[in-house]
Amino acid sequence: MDGRSPEGRSPRQPLAQGAPGGFPGRPPTEVSDRPVLPGPAPVAATPARPVPASRLAAGDLPGTPDVAVGGGAGRPRICVLAPTPLLVVEIASPHEDSGRAPEHTDIHLHPGGQGLWVARMAVSLGADVTVCGPFGGELGPAVAQMLSSDRLTIHAVTYNGGNGAYVYDLRGEDREIVSHMPPAALNRHELDDLYGTLLVDALDSDVLVVTGAEPSSVVPSSFFGRIIRDLRSAGKPVVADLSGNAARVAAKAGPSVLKMSHEEVRAAGLTEDAEPASLLAVAREMVAGGVEAMVVSRAQDPALIVTADGSRRAVGPVVTPLDHRGAGDSMTAGIAVGIGRGLDIYGAVRLGAAAGALNVTRRGLGTGRRDQIERFAERITIEEMA
Asked: FRET partner for 68 with CA separation of 20 to 30 A, picked from 30, 143, 187, 299?
């Protein structure tokens, strides 16, 4: 993106690099409850967790509750693009001291997918979160209903192809995929509905988080570039967590933050190895091409942060992982919430690094406690690199 603002739109605001204060000219936003547009009658929840008497926003999927979340002073409003919400089924053994027979297992059902994991962590960090995504088929309404207990607002678009699912066996040393039902590609009408829903909601938010599709064939890469370009032209911060060709296209659109793992950088063919020098070279090229800040997560090693004013790394305590999956998505959520709070990029990465580190110490992707994450963030330091 060349930085020029289309007529009628405010110019894009640069990402703060130094002192706390976040985005110049944009104080922390006071978030208030938004009215819900009239629509179909709400779906009753289970008696244990009644759904508030809300209605669907216009155009939302019939049978999917629009779960309202009230905001408060200084509470950032985060919009998350979730192109492929999934149903996750997990088979687990009871703990060793449960006294249950060995052949007995625990069966767990969870809403999943990168976008939903990011959204759940953002809620844990105190943000007012909306999720825009396709929900349909047999599984989509069930996934959306399960999200009602996660204090999320769901803006669903109709999806004739239907959402996908994973079945995992957790009884071994690592999770094993028992079965996978991939979702179908969105047709052109569904893509148009998703784009319009996302654009309008993101313009009402403090930060847009763009997450990828799995498999990538569900949504074309150009979709991500368009939404990033439109939001940045309107002066809205965008945090993109993408891989493959979608990451390449997003980088050209100039997101506020592009976050990739070292494995994703290699898989995209951007470098032949994962040495810090090679990763830094890729990140500097991305920043020179229009990305304001690039963050490269490296599993247990310090994450790298590259901006126009230099290269740094986020160093913190090393923890023993219970489940390594979900750290990157939690980090993305923390970065987005930090930016929404008005932190500079380094303060936002500290919050994100803490969220990612603590997520791997617990069961449940995209989960954590705000008080623990914020205290742990105090132990994350940002060090300059040559």
From this structure: 187
